[in-house]
């Protein structure tokens, strides 16, 4: 299956997930992230604004605000690194995706923004992929420009 076929299939599964299941699974994902030692130590975290079909990460953002960490949000309209203002080093980047492997391979939303951002501006940051369990697959059609995440967290 190529990337486009995979995106179509996964987006259909994401759209079929009802709101109650999405909230419950999202909460499980957030609770798992909150337990990560690297999360507890993070001071500068880049988060994404989820599309309606992606895991909800509001509890993670609330935790960062409560701790006084710097939160930088990547909006869905971001197309280049210039669309995100960051002045210092980044500790963690929460990364959305259409599908992941347990080893950290990722197929993204399709615009290439996150691959460029992760390869350059966030190259030294810890990259945490956020996904529902059905988005974890055995293998993916990966290309040379695709950037792996360090950790994949699912429900």
What is the compact description of this entry?
With about 160 residues, the protein is an alpha/beta fold. The protein contains five helices and seven strands; from the N terminus they run αααβαββββαββ.
Question: How would you describe the overall organization of this protein?
Answer:
By secondary structure, the chain is of the alpha/beta class. Helix content is 34%, strand content 17%. The protein contains 5 helices and 7 strands. The chain has helices spanning 3-16, 19-34, 37-41, 58-67, 113-119; strands spanning 44-48, 70-74, 92-95, 99-100, 106-107, 126-130, 151-153. The strands form 2 sheets. It has a 5-stranded parallel β-sheet with strand order 2-1-3-6-7. The chain has a two-stranded antiparallel ribbon with strand order 4-5. Helix 4 (58-67) links the parallel strand 1 and strand 2. It is globular and about 40 Å long. The mean pLDDT is 93.
Keywords:
5 helices, two-stranded antiparallel ribbon, 155 residues, alpha/beta, five-stranded parallel beta sheet
Order of helices and strands: HHHEHEEEEHEE
**Any low-confidence stretches, pLDDT <50, length ≥5?**
none
Which class of secondary structure composition applies to the elements? alpha/beta
Q: Compute the CA-based radius of gyration.
A: 15 Å
Number of strands: 7
Helix content: 25-40%
Average pLDDT over all residues: 93
Major sheet description: 5 strands, parallel
Give the count of helical stretches: 5
- Spatial order of the strands in the main sheet? 2-1-3-6-7
Silhouette:
globular
């Amino acid at each position: 299956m190529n990337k486009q076929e995979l995106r179509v299939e996964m987006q259909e599964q994401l759209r079929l997930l009802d709101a109650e299941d999405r909230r419950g699974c999202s909460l499980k994902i957030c609770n798992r992230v909150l337990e990560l030692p690297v999360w507890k130590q993070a001071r500068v975290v880049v988060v994404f604004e989820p599309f309606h079909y992606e895991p909800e990460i509001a509890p993670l953002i609330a935790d960062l605000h409560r701790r006084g960490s710097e939160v930088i949000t990547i909006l869905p309209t971001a197309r280049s690194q210039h669309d995100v203002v960051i002045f210092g080093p980044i500790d963690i980047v929460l990364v959305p995706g259409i599908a992941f492997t347990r080893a950290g391979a990722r197929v993204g939303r399709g615009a290439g923004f996150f691959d460029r951002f992760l390869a350059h501006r966030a190259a030294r940051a810890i990259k945490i992929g956020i996904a529902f369990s059905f988005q974890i697959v055995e293998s993916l059609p990966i290309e040379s420009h695709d950037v792996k995440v360090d950790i994949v967290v699912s429900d």
